[in-house]
Amino acid sequence: MSRESNRPGNSGAKTEILDSALRFLLREEDSTERVLKEIEKVLDPFWDRAEALNPTLSRDDDPLFMLVTGLVSDVEDASYKAGFLTGFALAQEIENAQRAHGN
């Protein structure tokens, strides 16, 4: 961040924070295929345990699989939003502290 963007009354710091966040979100290595592989890494052990506990359960049961996958997706979405909002709030606090100290 440039010193110019940290001056009181300048929204440059917030713009830089948002630009950085967007660059992170849009990076090419976060392809759909990679994300699906990450979800599989989490779900495979879950299904192994679930099927061992109750043999009537099956990852091949589409409605049950979709229910579990939907839950995982919803939890991930909520966690991501909470993390993003926390990070943004922290950046604002840092910016306010720098302003208060004249930096």
Describe this structure in words.
The protein starts with 11 loop residues before the first helix and ends with a helix. It has a domain at 30-100. The protein has helices at 12-25, 32-53, 62-100. It is 73% helix and 0% strand. It has 103 residues and is mostly helical. The protein has 3 helices and no strands.
Would you summarize the structure shown here?
This protein has 103 residues and is mostly helical.
Number of strands: 0
Poorly predicted tracts of residues: 1-10
How many helices in DSSP terms? 3
Relative helix content:
over 70%
Mean pLDDT, all residues: 76
Structural class: mainly alpha
Distance between the termini: 12 Å
The amount of beta strand, in percent, is under 5%
Furnish the topology, listing elements before pairings.
Layout: H1 12-25, H2 32-53, H3 62-100
Name its key features:
103 residues; mainly alpha; 3 helices; disordered N terminus
